[in-house]
Amino acid sequence: MNTEAVSPLAWSPDSWGGFPAGQQPVYSDPAALERALAELRQLPPLVTSWEVISLREQLADAAAGRRFVLQGGDCAERFVDCTSTRIANLLKILLQMSLVLVVGAQRPVIRVGRFGGQYAKPRSSNFETRDGIELPAYRGDLINGAEFSAEARAADPGRLLRGYGHAALTLNFIRALVKGGFADLHHPEYFDLDWVSDSPLAHEYHRTVEVIRESLRFMENVLDVRAGETDRIDFFASHEALHLGYEAAQTRHVPRRPGWFNLSTHFPWIGRRTNEAGGAHMEYLRGIENPVGIKVGPGCDRETAKRWLDVLDPRRQPGRLALIHRFGADRIADALPALVEAVRAEGGAPVWICDGMHGNTRVTQDGIRTRRFEDVYSEVEQAFDIHHAMGGRLGGVHFELTGENVTECTGGARGQSQTDLRRAYESDVDPRLNYEQSLELAFLIARKMKQEAC
Ligand code: PEP
Ligand code: CO
Question: What is the rounded distance in angstroms from the CA atom of residue 111 to the CA atom of residue 236?
Fold first, then answer.
């Protein structure tokens, strides 16, 4: 890499253009792309710099073990799912999970959605072939359509504006719900716990719910959730910063604050497929004030970890960096300790977040992408143990989940099987935990955290 190009002075929202950029769509009409980006540059921000800074401060607490991060949502948001029911259901499951986690962690939980911009997807192949016909791969609603036709699969710059619009609608509704009392947790009917009767953990679950009810007053103080009384946002937004034109167009200076802010989201992360230290995504991320995440998978060596820290967090600023590790249940024990050591040796103190999903994807004999609940939990459980054994703390968890009753992952208390997968499989990309599986996972993690504290 050209060392001049990594000088902080040389950075601008568009300096990534001088670096190799993976996973970017090819537009047939560059002038139309430029027009869309020019319009995007003029539109108002989706989040504010003070929210971004507040999250960075809270993440600094998480890195120090004083808060815990719950990050979750769809693998890919779809424009068709931008509906009141879907958004409210997602908020509800995240809220319930966070409440359960507060009991286990005995510390405040930072709620971060994969929403309001999670519209672009990295793909392992640029093309998809069906019945001998080859078309560009579906790259998420920000880029093209999922339908298998030449028209739908063409990259359409107008989708960048639609993506911005849908993100705005989503965040607007979430803000209204939170402000309007949705976060009022006094109602036991929020907990649809019918499914626990199927679980060997039923007794424990019911006890946890009782604890939640009894200590609501106390938890309100810790959580800072007071229905209708707070203007402060209670959920943060995050998405993969994949389409660099979209991100750069929403990267702004704000009055009275130094630096550049990505105001399309509070917490952008870069995925495993675009995390090379000399790549365009890293170049973009290094110049913004937001807290940023990097997905880390198998094969990350000491040198890479050092370069990530030097490029993204040269000042080793608390709350600036989250390492979201996703090795898989069968690899985390081998891979994580070396990564933790390498980061510590460089003086890094990131928030460690375990993504229990992306290292545990498998394809069934029928060709259905799925994940086993047991693998997801196993990876998280091992993450707690490894960080604990190394004298640190897991700072958070990251899941692909939905508030809907889908059948995309197997396992959990209801024993969802492979044959169930066809019944309600909706995702065009990765399989998500459904409502019950998500809540069960939160209970298991809460139990684990209680043990860790003993
Ligand atoms: C994702 O979070 O949807 C994703 C693609 O993850 P990763 O980059 O870890 O594979
Ligand atoms: Co995914």
Answer: 6
Burial call 125-161: b when 16+ CB within 10 Å, e when fewer: eeeeeeeeeebbbbbbbbbbbeeeeeeebbbbbebbb
Which residue type is seen at 106? Answer: Q
CA of 25 to the centre of ligand 2 (A): 18
Percent of the chain with pLDDT over 70: 88
Q: Which of 355, 427, 429 to mutate to test the pocket of ligand 1 (most atoms within 8 A of CB)?
A: 355
3-class state of residue 133 by DSSP: strand
Q: What is the pLDDT of residue 228?
A: 38
CA distance 396 to 393: 9
Q: Which tokens belong to 233?
A: 């946002």
**Counting atoms of ligand 1 from 1, which one is nearest the CA of 76?**
3
Q: Do the Cβ atoms of 393 and 355 come closer than 8 Å?
A: no
Closest CA to 384 of 445, 326, 300, 439: 445
With a 6 Å cutoff on the Cβ, whether 122 touches ligand 1 is: yes
Closest to 46 (Cα-Cα) out of 146, 195, 173: 173
pLDDT at 306 over 60: yes
Bridge partner residues of 353 (DSSP): 324, 396
pTM above 0.85, yes or no: yes
Q: List pLDDT tens digits, range 419-433.
A: 999 999 999 899 999
For the chain, the structural domain boundaries read 3-453
pLDDT at residue 289 in the model: 98
Is the distance from the beta carbon of residue 271 to the nearest atom of ligand 1 less than 6 Å?
Answer: yes
Confidence of residue 35 (pLDDT cuts 50, 70, 90): very high
Say whether 454 sits in a helix, a strand or coil.
coil
CATH classification of 3-453 is 3.90.280.10, yes or no?
no
Tokens, residue 318: 């608390």
Q: Cα(83)–Cα(61) distance, rounded to whole angstroms?
A: 34
At 209-235, the pLDDT tens digits run 777 777 666 656 665 655 434 344 489
Token couple for 21: 């950029």
355 CA closest ligand 1 atom index: 9
